Amino acid sequence: MKKYDKLVKNAAGRMVPTIVNGEEHIPFKGIGKHIPTGRKHAPHIASCANYPADGNKTVASLKEALIKAGLKDGMTISTHHHFRNGDVISNQIFDIAAELGVKNLRWYPSASFPSQAGLIKYLEDGTINRIEGSMNGALGRFCSEGKMQGLGVLRSHGGRYQAVQDGEVQIDIAVIAAPTADAFGNANGVDGDAACGLLGFALADSQYADKVIVVTDNLVPFPCIPWQIHGNYVDYTVVVDQVGIPEKIISGTTQITKSPDRLMIAEMTAKFCDQAGIVKDGFSYQAGAGGTALSIGIYFAEMLKERKMKARFIRAGSNKYPVQMLEDGLVDYILDG
What is the pTM of this model? Predict the structure, then answer.
C-alpha cells in the first residue's frame, strides 16, 4: 500500500495528497468552502444479551478483553493521553498484540509521549503500521525520519473528534485507561491514585468505537459518580495494578515555563485580557497545554488577589496553580488539575 498518491495544491497553496494510507482525504478548500454531507458514524448495536445479567463487565485481564473485542490484523486501536509521560497502558496493548501475532495496526492516540518509545520495535516489525496522533520524543523522531511503514497523520484535538464522529477514522477498539471506574464501565479521571483530571480526550472514542475497554486500578461500587465515560458505551472493564504513574502526569507541555521570555509573553497576555475587560469578578478561563499558556494563571491570580475578586471556574491543566488558586479562595471550582 502506497503511503500517499500524487500531490495537489490546496487552498493554502500547499502541495498535499488526496489519498493517505489508502484512504481518501479532502484537501483544504478554503474557509467555509467544504460542507460535509452524510450522517455521523455509529458503532455496532449492543444489547443486554451481550453482557452479564448483573451488569458486571469485568474480565480477568487486558489480554482477555482485547481477544473478546476481536483484535485482529489491520484494526484501529485508540488511546488517550491524559496520563502523558506517566501512561503505562498503551505499551501493554501492543505487547499483547505482538504476543498474539497481530499485524498492521493503526494506533490512534490523542497524543503519544516519550514513555511509549518502546513501541518503536512494533513499528519496525509491522505490529503497528502507523501512528495517527501527535508524537513526542523518540516516536516523533522516528516518524520525522520517514521510518514508519504508513504515513503519520496529525490532527488537532477537535479535528480528531470530528474525524471519529464523521467516520473518517473508524475506531475498532478503544482502550480507555481510567483512574476510577465501576464494573459496569462508568469511569472518571478525578478520583483514584492516578487522578489526571477530566477524560475529555477519550469521549469520542467511548461514543463511536465499535468496542470499548475501560481499564482501571481503582474499581469502586456501582455507580461511579461522577462519571464522564458512560458505562452504556463500554463493553469490558479490566482491573490492573496501575494505569498511570502520578508523578509523571505533569510533564512536557503541562509544566509551567521558567523561561523569562515566555513568562513575559504570559504577563503581557494577561494584561491584554485585563485591558480588554475580560478579567472581572466571576469570569472564567481555560488555558491550553503549553508552559506559556499555563503561566497566564500566575498573573490572573495576582490580579484577582489584589482586587479581592474571584473567578467562577478555571481549567488550566494538571499543575499547582489551579489548586493554589482554589485554596486561596480565588476561584469557585476547577475543572481539572
Answer: 0.79
